[in-house]
Amino acid sequence: MMRGTTVLFLSSLMVVMTMASAAEYEVVLEDFSSPKLSWSTFGDDHMGGPSHGDFRIGNGVGVYDGRVGFLPRIAGPGFIKLDGSSSFDDISTCRAIKLVARSTTPSYQGFRLSFGTEHDPVTQMPYIKGHKAHFYLDASVPSTGFQTVLIPFQDFSLDWDPRTGDAVVPCRDDVEFCPDLATLQDIKKLAILGEGAAGDVNLEMQTISAVECGQEPMNFMNFPKDVQFVEYEYTAEGRSFFGVPFFLMAAVAVIVGALYWKQKKQQRTAPNFYQAVETIDTTPHEAGYSLELAET
Fold it and tell me: Domain named NADH:ubiquinone oxidoreductase intermediate-associated protein: which ranges (predicted)?
């Protein structure tokens, strides 16, 4: 009986995992093997600063090279920026931006990505636009190997410090600064930056995509604050199991639990010669049996 219920639980779990995977897709924003965006560079060198950057595309890779220098007027590092513009597909049902890239400067701490043209009125600077997020590369990956960087939408904020690029109030802390529906339906602009940290910058990109896309628009009010992304699937501590969101796991557990108790009840009420002289224990088991079944 225990083995049969375990098989049923695992079978149900596989069905849920398959359904969850089938319902998700990604939207390619730029593929440098067949680029569709118009790219241009900008930096504090246009304002007399020391930073500079250049961009080229070759062999299916977009290569952004430059250096961020010290900018006396802000008494800190300046910035370099790579802007991509065109018409964009709707990414309002997605949950993160995925960047497939490599770098000869993976330890650089000023990589950022921004999208959109929304303005934060708090800054009172009309040229400060877009939702921005910090991202990091894994320095343990060889510079010749491409790695996948995932940036959840909750890391982006409209409220960021124009001197450093750091978020003042992240989206995960206040939905007012999260990407709005109109922005996600057409981001209009996409940018890669070196900002808030001085040093050499190198980023070689294959693709930029929006991932974990589904059927319904993103609802930041219902998005778990501690979400983490791993490769193509997201996990939230205490809210997932093998990449399956906890609420789906709970649904499977309820179904399997109902079937389990139904069969137990039938066993207790059915005539059985060997049980005729035995006392049947009808004390309910404690909650959590579905986890025990999964471990057998």
Answer: 36-162
pLDDT class of 195 with cuts at 50, 70, 90: very high
Question: pLDDT (tens digit, 9 = 90+) per residue, 105-140?
Answer: 999 999 999 999 998 777 666 678 999 999 999 999
Question: Is the separation of the CB atoms in 183 and 48 below 8 Å?
Answer: no
Type of residue found at 120: D
Rounded average pLDDT over 267-296: 38
The answer to whether 94 and 153 have CB atoms below 8 angstroms apart is: yes
Architecture of the domain made up of 24-214: Sandwich (2.60)
pTM for this prediction = 0.68
Rounded distance, CA 157 to CA 292, Å? 42
Which stretches within the chain are classed as H helix? Answer: 2-22, 181-185, 246-269, 289-295
Q: Indicate if the pLDDT at residue 277 is higher than 60.
A: no
Are 201 and 77 contacting, i.e. CB atoms less than 8 angstroms apart?
A: no
Nearest to 108 by CA among 136, 133, 76: 136
SS3 of residue 78 by DSSP: coil
Q: Which residue has the tokens 């950057």?
A: 53
Q: Where are the domains of the chain?
A: 2-15+246-295, 24-214
Closest CA to 212 of 21, 58, 17, 15: 21
CA 90 to each of CA 27, 154, 192, 219: distance values in angstroms, whole numbers, following the listed order? 8, 18, 20, 15
Report yes or no: 35 and 29 within 8 Å, Cβ to Cβ.
no
Q: Helix, strand, or coil here: 116?
A: strand
